[in-house]
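Sharing a chain and its predicted structure for anyone who wants a worked example. Both blocks are below, sequence first, tokens second.
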Amino acid sequence: MVSEDIDSASRGSAQFATTHWSTVLAAADSASPDSQQALERLCRTYWYPLYAFARRTGQAPEDAKDLTQSFFAHLIEHRFVARAVPERGKFRSFLLGAFKRFIRDQDRAQRAQQRGGLVEFVTWDSKQAEERLETEPRTTDDPEAMYDREWALAVLDEAMTLLEFECRREGKTEQFEVLHPLLQGDRPESRQADLAARLGLSAGALKVAIHRLRRRYGELLRAVVAHTVPDPGDVDEELRYLVRMLGQ
């Protein structure tokens, strides 16, 4: 089961617990000891897609930062996540819809009064965020398409983080560090001998290791996506959509 895939990757470390619908439900329960930690995970995972959306709608960098931080503070203060239920659809759609409504309800003066007084759940680096925004390909001016693309990248990053944690736990840190670029489009054909030598593997053993790493990454990616959709039957469709967004 996909939930077991995530659990096996995160067992022994709450840092890598799921960060989607299951986390939203945990965050919504203020009596739960995991509630605050769940909210912090949501902030860490999704601040950049929301920040990028705000910037593409014309917000200045500082205002986009304030809006995103204020939005997460709003979720926490008003327990807004308690209104989120998986039956309402994909988590990325719920989060963006809530953010758009929040932006409409704010004005610049209110945000300026809050500036600097918020509890920050994410370590912000506005300069780094702006550099990333400028260097990413801009094939569309649609802020929602931009948000979906950044969402797709966040999902890939989460699956990769889970894979890295598994490899480190299993004593395969060096193997992960050497081979994980192959999961991101790098092709090893021209330098298999070099990779095998670095890891002390035969050519055949290297091929097996690459195959296993790719397969496990695919399993974890499916597991992560499964936690963002209301029905397991929607996983393949959502994966196809995310791949399409990454191609923009």
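Comments welcome. The radius of gyration is 20 Å.
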